Automatic annotation (TrEMBL):
The chain crosses the membrane at residues 18-35. The keyword Transmembrane helix applies. Residues 105-117 have a biased composition (Polar residues). Keywords: Membrane, Transmembrane, Transmembrane helix. Residues 105-131 are annotated as: Disordered. This is Uncharacterized protein. It comes from the Bacteria. Residues 121-131 have a biased composition (Basic and acidic residues).
């Protein structure tokens, strides 16, 4: 078989319905792979946006004057910090945002057990009353 015969055979195959079908399958696989990748990226972005929405809500609860509401916010932030969608930087943000509140609560731990709340920490109002 000469080079010319090979080129002619290849050209005939390229013009055949078999080649067109093969090319269509390859194009469909490429399109499917791209669409699947795009869908995954979109889902990740939506989950991350939802995570941040929940974190924003929880941070707003932490700043509430009511101790019960603030504790709920801290608990939600703890759960969000341990979720699979919390990356390294999200954990840093949560730690930085909650540090003042956590240190505030630690500073009001009562020395006398009779002055402690249910969780062993004085409430903000109890700590304020002591001042």
């Amino acid at each position: 078989m000469t080079v010319e015969d090979f080129v002619n055979s290849a050209w005939e195959w390229i013009r055949s319905p078999g080649f067109a079908g093969s090319a269509a399958v390859v194009a469909a696989v490429i399109a499917f792979t791209t669409a699947r990748k795009d869908r995954r990226q979109k889902e990740r972005a939506e989950r991350k946006a939802q995570w941040w929405s929940r974190a924003e809500w929880a941070l707003n609860q932490v700043t509430d004057r009511d101790d019960f509401t603030a504790q709920i916010g801290l608990n939600v932030l703890d759960a969000l910090g341990n979720s699979e969608w919390a990356g390294e930087h999200e954990g840093d943000v949560i730690a930085a945002a909650t540090a003042p509140f956590l240190s505030e609560n630690q500073s009001v731990v009562a020395d006398n057990p009779s002055q402690m709340g249910d969780n062993g920490v004085k409430t903000r109002s109890e700590a304020h009353d002591d001042e």
